[in-house]
Amino acid sequence: MGFKKKQMLGFGLILLFLAILLSFMMFTLNNLKSSMTEIVENRYDKVQASMEIRQLFSRSDREILFAANGANKEERAESLEIINENHSLIESKIAGLSGSLNKAKAKQLLKEFETQYASYSITEAELIQKIKSGNSSDNLSSLMDDQREKRTKVISTMDEFKDYQEGVMKDTLSNSKQTYEDMIGFVIFAVILSILVISVTVVWMIRSTSKDLQSITKVIENIDFKNLSVIPRIPVRTTDEIGDIAKSFNDMAESLEVYNQKEKDFTEKISEQNWIQTRVADIATMYQRIVDVEVLADRFITRLAPMMGASIGAFYVKRGEGVDMRFVKLASFAGDGEDSGRREFRLGEGLIGQCALEKKSKVIEDIPEDYQLVTTGLGEVNPKSIVIAPVVFEDEVVAMVELASLEAFTKLQKTFLNQVLDTLGITINNVEGRMEIERLLKESQAQTEELQAQSEELQSQSEEMQAQSEELQTQAEELRMINEQLEERNRETEEKSKELQVAKLNLEKQAEELKLSSKYKSEFMANMSHELRTPLNSILILSEMLSDPNDSKLNEEQQEFARVINSSGQDLLTLINDILDLSKVEVGKLEVVFDEMNLSELPELLHRNFDHVAKKKNIDFIIEKSKNVPDIFFTDEQRFQQILKNLLSNAFKFTEKGSVSVQIKKADEENVAQWIQTKGASNWVEIKVTDTGIGISKEKQKLIFEAFQQGDGATMRKYGGTGLGLSICREFAKLLGGWVIVDSEEGQGSTFTFFIPSMPEGFKNVDEAIAASPEVAAANHDDSAAPFGDQDAGMMDEDDRDKAKPFCNKTVLVVDDDHRNIFALKNALKHEGMEILTAENGFECLELLEKGNNIDVILMDIMMPGMDGYETMTRIREQNKFEDLPIIALTAKAMKGDREKCLKAGASDYVSKPLKLDQLLSVLRVWLTN
């Protein structure tokens, strides 16, 4: 029987017994109520009515006696009236009783009373009549005796009727008491019986239910909640709700077991994934700051092998392309000297070559007995498992990894290897890209060391432009005053407006004149640049060739003359660069780029560039950097480095003995604020350059920051120089938001302090400064004021040059209208083994090309008579057969945008004059090898 049915049956029995008990009690109470109603409402009323009839009858009898025994006429009339009223009441009472009687004896007694009363009433009527007639009491005696006799009978019958009704009432009351006592006994019996039945029912329900619940509780208590892989089941003995609970519990237990197993599997997978990700992140962290593929290969195989549980390993990187492509071993792990695997292989050679060809990994478990042994300190053992995996980048194998282990590689280790190799290809490509960028950067730095032609007229032009700017400011002030007067004098608005318009037209006219002057100055600078660079180009190239002790046929003294000529040309280049930089600063058109730089590398950079100077002069060079100096700093690195270069160059130039020291520390903003405004900077750095040189007198300490001024300013100067270095330093410092101050005593040395702010967001008004005008921005693309350091960048090692020999049997066409340049280039390139063809303009160049000469590269000058370089390059590119012919544009008119203009006309590359031989050869090497 189900749990629900048991509950229904139990509670049904309880309700049934309660219903029976209640029904019996209601029945008994109804009987008791009927008895009490009969006693109170029926018997009592009848007794009361009989008593009232008797009282009325007695009263009538008294009135008759009073009327008959001496009452006057009025009293007699009143008594007779009372008798009549009582007679009417008695009859109505008798009529009421006759309708309510339900007992036969009561009815019989009432009938007798009615008969006797009727007889009495007749006698009473006669008596009343005689009394009314005025008879005396003596005449009424016989009639009074008869009335008295009949009255006695009536009263007797009425008393009997009353006694009967009282007896019936007593019997009814006795029956009611007995009924009440019987009801009490039955209720007690029924309650006891109900309690017994309900108790039995409840015990039966509880026992049958608790037994099943105890079995469920016992199973639940036996569950090991720490191990839910195996959960006990509840036996299903019934089909009721408890049975459903047992089934549901069993289903839940099964689900928990499945869930626990899935959770264990998931936890295991997460642990494996964490293991993989942790090691992948470790290797990815290792990639940082690696700029060489060999270093990458060595660190990678050294880190990967222990993680894979490998006992030996090798790392191969692709070298070459096409038929020359091969994989060369760059690193190994736990190898046995030169015998640790093959040095190189090609695609398809051996299993590792086949894996590289198919771009698939391979795991070898069955290792032959004579395979390479894993060497330990105690002996050698054979590996049990080998994995060979390619490193793929953009669907191309760039490296191969081979690992061997004394135990079989697990699935987790294989997955880890695949994930590591997915990112290794990108890393190898990035490192090779950085290596290529570094190589190209060195070549670019070599190209930036070019001479920009300028004359002393540049300074006067700058002064004239500054004067014009001051005049323009004066006129703007006059315009402001006019505007103020216009506000005060509203009545004269129209007249003042006309004057303002006239002033505005004058200003616009002067602005146009200033713009035209700037244009003329730009053209002048470009022409002067061309005219100065053209002869200087030949001087530098030929002097460099003559000063080469390996190639020159001159004696040592003549070679020294050539070196002096070359050095003088370089000094002239430096002078013009300084004048150009100063002019750009003065007109506010110098381009500054605020970007991130690393100050932690500054000491090493300074040592690398000035240690040889200190060693040559036999003085100490000391650099101190405080720990609180931030590593990351935001400024224009190129201008920052040039400021330090100029300060250190001055310090070494004027120091004959003692030391030069550099102190780098975080500046106190309050100290900086006394020299320059400090708002907008995240932090300040203070760099002190201190020397023990000749020092500067107090009266000259302001003079040295002006252009073309020196502390050693006498006519017969002991120290050389242009006097522009410190002027450029202060102007550059102002552009960067900083300042340069000097503290010196003559004969005691000098201390130059450079305050510079870190400006992550740059200057808000820097937008006006970066739009460099053509006349002063011509060198921006070539970075003539390049940062110091790596001065030999881009130059090939002599041994490498001898091995490469890319110029042998190559034909170059030199197109230039200047015979000096043709002569210099012809001799320089012929020395490298090249065949030289020359043309003086664009027409001759096109004629030589049409003749079918096998020309490998063209050196094209831009400014030529007849047909210039732009038109010549355009016509060459219009012919499909010369589409890939390398054309290198050479020009001394280095205007802003010339590089883009040359490349758009068809040039492959761009070099500005004066040329450096190594720089030119580096560019030629790039295009001839490609």
Biggest sheet statistics: 6 strands, antiparallel
What's the arrangement of strands in the largest beta sheet? 3-2-1-8-7-4
Q: How many extended strands? A: 20
Share in β-strands: 5-15%
Q: Roughly what is the average pLDDT, rounded to an integer?
A: 76
Radius of gyration: 66 Å
**Gap between N and C termini, in Å?**
97 Å
Question: Helical content, roughly?
Answer: 55-70%
Number of helices: 21
Indicate the structural class.
alpha/beta
The backbone outline, from C-alpha atoms, is elongated
In the predicted model, the low-confidence regions spanning at least 5 consecutive residues are: 713-717, 765-804
Q: Note the quaternary state here.
A: single chain
Compact summary:
By secondary structure, this protein is an alpha/beta fold. 58% of the residues lie in helices and 12% in strands.
Describe this structure in words.
- By secondary structure, this protein is of the alpha/beta class.
- A six-stranded antiparallel sheet has the order 3-2-1-8-7-4. A five-stranded mixed sheet has the order 10-12-13-15-14, covered by helices on one side.
- Strand 16, helix 17 and strand 17 (835-839) form a beta-alpha-beta unit.
- Helix 2 (73-100) runs antiparallel to helix 3 (104-133) and helix 3 runs antiparallel to helix 4 (141-221).
- The longest helix has 81 residues, at 141-221.
- The radius of gyration is 66 Å and the shape is elongated.
- The relative contact order is 0.05.
